[in-house]
Amino acid sequence: MGVLLSKEAKEDLLARGYSRRQFGRISALLGLGSAAMAASPLLSGTAAAKSAAASPKAPIEEAQNKSGMVRIGSNECWTGPFPTAAQAGAAVVPLGNRYEPSNLREQLIQTVSQVEKVPETHILPWPGSSDPLSRTVVTFCSPTRGLVTADPTFEASWRTASWLGVKVTKVPLRAENKYVTDVRAMLKADPNAGIYYVCSPNNPTGTVTPLADIKWLVAHKPEGSIVLVDEAYIHFSGAPSAAKLVAENKDVVVLRTFSKLFAMAGLRLGLSMARPDLHEKMMRYDGLNQSGTLSIVALATGTASLTQTAAIAERRSQMIAVREATFAHLKKRGLTYLPSEANMFMVDWKQPAQTMRDAFAARKIDIGRNWPIWPTMSRVTVGSAEDMKAFCDALDQIMV
């Protein structure tokens, strides 16, 4: 179900090169909500739509069938939310009969502001980060101003742009420099784009774009465009955040999700940080405040998670130790992998990635997908020590 576009929104869209025929797609896009947006056949491509239509199994049955698998394919955290955060979430469940039982939304914003040193006026919570990601494409791109990203990177922005008829320019990562995003090549590839999207750490490579490079891009980009920085995996790397650029009122939108290190993928909570005028532009296409439709359990759990400084560092250290042990095993097997600063990595099998994915699946190991630019490489999530031992054992069986 779509949202009702206002007269002002329609006039803005027409002025930026969209046609009236595209209003329906934009309305549907904004009405999907964050969780549905990521999975919708509208945005996930024809192949995904056919796959969903062909499967007679209900989602719960599919989840049950997966329960026997080692799940290291979706970049989920290997454990649940921090105990203190889970307790905070559980404590508000008895208040679930009320729409607004307390000021939980305001508490989250205040906590983010304190932790990230960003004004409260620059913070919007969302049910995940897919909605604001797609919404920025609608807002700042158009048929005359495209989207520029690294390749490979998280594909959601590609799908949204393609659905809307927006030009998508993909720039290969810098192979000679640890596969980081090449911001100078991005600007050169399309000097008049609407969005320059930087995922850091990058999904699927786990490589960090130096903050100095992001600053350079912000300083040299065209007027009227934004730099969209997706920091879904920032807590796994400990790298400096682009949030400081938001605090400086730059043309920057920073996205966060609680789905990764905070282990809240199923609770759906995310954030966007940007100047108020940029947020206002993102929200002008519908009369509904999608940012306000938040679970009180997610709000309470997320707020408590942000202040767990020692637990965040400990979880990061646990992941790094398991990741490095896995890298050592891959090296022993003579396999090439990309050094990562997140809870995932790319490994090169020197053969079709799908063949290896099928081989692992036959051994109850669910590894991640590949990207078209790298057909022989798979993304693997760093799971628990037990998960990664199972991965390494299965690898040894496959490579006999």
TrEMBL record:
Any one GO molecular function term: transaminase activity
Protein family per UniProt: Belongs to the class-II pyridoxal-phosphate-dependent aminotransferase family. Histidinol-phosphate aminotransferase subfamily.
Domain Aminotransferase class I/classII large: 69-395
Domain of life: Bacteria
Protein known as: Pyridoxal phosphate-dependent aminotransferase
InterPro entries on file: Aminotransferase_I/II_large, HistidinolP_aminotransfase, PyrdxlP-dep_Trfase, PyrdxlP-dep_Trfase_major, PyrdxlP-dep_Trfase_small, TAT_signal
Family annotation (PANTHER family): HISTIDINOL-PHOSPHATE AMINOTRANSFERASE (PTHR43643:SF3), HISTIDINOL-PHOSPHATE AMINOTRANSFERASE 2 (PTHR43643)
Annotated organism of origin: Komagataeibacter melomenusus
Pathway the protein takes part in: Amino-acid biosynthesis
Keywords: Aminotransferase, Pyridoxal phosphate, Transferase
NCBIfam families in the cross-refs: PRK09105.1 (NF006580)
Pfam families reported for this sequence: Aminotran_1_2 (PF00155)
